[in-house]
Design goal:
- The structure is a single chain.
- The protein has a 6-stranded mixed sheet, sandwiched between helices. A 6-stranded mixed sheet has the order 8-7-9-10-11-12, with helices on both faces.
- It has helices at about 1-40, 70-85, 100-110, 130-135, 165-180, 195-215, 230-245, 260-265, 285-295, 305-320, 355-365; strands at about 60-65, 90-95, 115-120, 140-145, 150-155, 160-165, 185-190, 215-220, 250, 275-280, 300-305, 335.
- The protein contains 11 helices and 12 strands.
Amino acid sequence: MKHIALTLAAATFAAAAAGTTSAFAQDKMMEAEKVVQKYATRQDSWDGPTTGPKAAEGKTIVVLAADLKNGGVLGVTTGIEEAVDAIGWDVRVIDGGGSVSGRQAAFSQALALKPDGLVINGADILEQKAGVEQAQAAGIKMVSWHSAPVIGPVDGTGVFANVTTDAMEVSRAAANWAFKDAGGKPAVVIFTDSTYSIAIAKADRMKEVIEDLGGTVLEYVDTPIADTSTRMPQLTTTLLQRYGEKWTHSLAINDLYFDFMGPSLASAGIKGDGAPINVAAGDGSESAYQRVRAQQYQAVTVAEPLNLQGWQLVDELNRAFADEKWSGYVSPLHVVTPDNIAYDGGPDNRFDPGNGYRDEYKKIWGK
């Protein structure tokens, strides 16, 4: 009888433990669902600045674009050009071509033009420290996009404001979507680029979230964004051989990684909506939107409002010219899926919030 009693007690304990584990898993799934839904809804109300200085007159600015092949950099550049036309300034765009030496040469060209303002678009501030110091010494007002891990002023650099969404929330949203999609058991490969401090911060955050939720990180891959066209096809094949069906999801810090994975996945007999399922924590490129819509080798992009951010960069420069504080605005992010791609700019293959930001900035500038 004693043996039977012990057996029954053990069974009761095991059942209780299983129930606790199940409840814990359900809580995690509900938490992930809440995170995803927060950022998958419509963005149709303006929550940015409504006051600020009137437009400065006769300004010339230069955009140092890290790599115009990068959809994020290109989208922001387009927004800057649109906003500059509205505010009445002159703008010159210089392409860094995706290499450190190219960005350094572009920075030298930008400084030689002696502009009133400079937008460092996608180039890491630490990488371009020498150019940043020269611009600061010359009294050139600087703003940046995705050039540092912080939002707003970058202390000690002269950069008035670094514009971005909350990169850690972008990473959190992407990781939670993968967790939910995998039924609570994701086994992921994470792609990043150590050239950029912001890329490492985003990838580290995705790794942290996946592991905290109880998922598995199969591999953390550091490979340059600029070399994705040559590296990703073979790298994808190698990873498939290494992990096979264990590999449920890919998490990348930028859509560009997935521009070149499709053919290798197709060659391995994987369908467009099959595993590994690709999820990008930024930036919502045109090609990413097309893949998500067609459900071909990318299920999600956590998009940034690139055009809006271009307008914000111009507004921040205008505040810098007026010796005012930065606006404090942090632009919204958007989890783009086949279910919500029909609104907020989706038909034009970009996240362009329907919140009237163009008119709001024109009101501030007196235009």
